[in-house]
Every structure is written in C-alpha cells, then in structure tokens.
Amino acid sequence: MVINPYIEIPLRALFSFIFLLVFARMNGREQISQLTYFEYVVGITIGSIAATLTTTPMDPFLPGLLGMAVWAILPYLTGILVLKSVPARKIIEGEPVVVIQNGKIDEEALARQRLNLDDLMLMLREKDIFNIGDVENAVFETNGDLTVQRKSQLNPVTPADLNIGTSYQGLPTTVVQDGVLIENRLKEISLSKDWIVKKLQGEHGVTDISQVSIAQLDTSGNLYVDLINANPENKPH
C-alpha cells in the first residue's frame, strides 16, 4: 500500500521522536559537556539513523527502527557493565590523566592526550587561572574537562580556617510555582496553607497566590518571592 509521503514522513518523524525520547531517558541525564567520546559518537549515530528513517520513505521503517533500538540498548548495557566492572570502565571510558603534578607540566601526558600548551592554557583560563604557577595539580578527565587544584596558599579563607561557627544552610523549599501552591512541600516542612498566605500578604503584599511566579522558603525562614509580570525594579524579595 502506497502512503502519501506528506502523511508518512510526519508519522515517521513522530515515531522516531518518541523512540529517541525513550532511549534518551533510558540512557541517563548527562549533559553534553559530561559525555565521553564514545557516548558522543553513539548519540550522533542514533540521531543519524532517526533522520534517515524520517526523510527516506522508500526505506522500510521497522528494520531501521530495530537498528536504532540496538544502538540505544548497547550503550545502556555497556553503562551497566561500566558500573559493575572496573577493567571494563577503563577500556570503555578511559582513565583521568594527570597533566600537571606538583606544579610541573607533564608534556608526555599532554602529548598522549593530543593536547598542546595552548589547549592547556585555554582550559586553565576557563577555570579563571591565568598563571600556571598557581596550579598544584591538574587532571584531564575522561569527559574532556580539566579539574584543577590550586596551590594551598592561594585557596580562599573559609570560616573553618578562622574558627568561626556557621549555622546550617540547607536547600530552599519551593512552596509556590507558576501561581500554584505546592501543598505537599508545605507538609514536608510542617507548615500550613494559611501560614504561607499570611506570609505572602504581610511581607510581600500578595493578595492572590496566582500572582506569584515562584516563592522559596530557606532554612532560616526567609521567603523569596518573584511575581508574575512584575517590573524588575519593583519586585518584592
């Protein structure tokens, strides 16, 4: 049966999109900057198969979908293998490489990673380091990022260094989002709807929760409020 290509192509695109979404969720939530080279190549391959399935109606759809499924399932299986086996992890993902150790650049390690000094300086500048003399150790990670340890005398002073006590600071709780009160979040922190309504009205002049874009309560009891369509200069905090 011949199907109108103006109907078949959108249907192919829809089914390919759904399968890509399922496969992407199945294989995790790593950001592009965190992907290994292997994962990057697999992603390009799966995307290419999906594009071919969409734009070539003369090719049978199901065999191509099967190929895309195999390409998506194999990284999932290798991901499980990487979690369970250290030798497999080293083979598939590689190992981090120390490129600066005890303040000295390892030129051989840079060469093995096909990096030059300009590449190294670029990655250091991305870490707000402009002087190699400030670096104690630097590790080239398997995802292509550079992890840097500054020399200890250049680390910022912390309250612990000065023997200053600090109070607990946990994550804020979002209690209103897009004009909707999130009641289960209030129950988690043992607060009532009446309490938040009074807090919004008394401290921020909010007469209706639907006016609130987002409201977050921190562990010190401070409520941050951002109103929908409010002038930035007049937004309550």
Automatic annotation (TrEMBL):
It is a multi-pass membrane protein. The chain crosses the membrane at residues 6-24, 36-55, 61-83. InterPro entries: DUF421 (IPR007353), UPF0702_alpha/beta_dom_sf (IPR023090). It holds the Pfam family DUF421. Residues 84-217 form the YetF C-terminal domain. GO terms for cellular component: plasma membrane. It is found in: Cell membrane. PANTHER family: UPF0702 TRANSMEMBRANE PROTEIN YCAP, UPF0702 TRANSMEMBRANE PROTEIN YDFS. This is Uncharacterized membrane protein YcaP (DUF421 family). It comes from Desulfallas thermosapovorans DSM 6562.
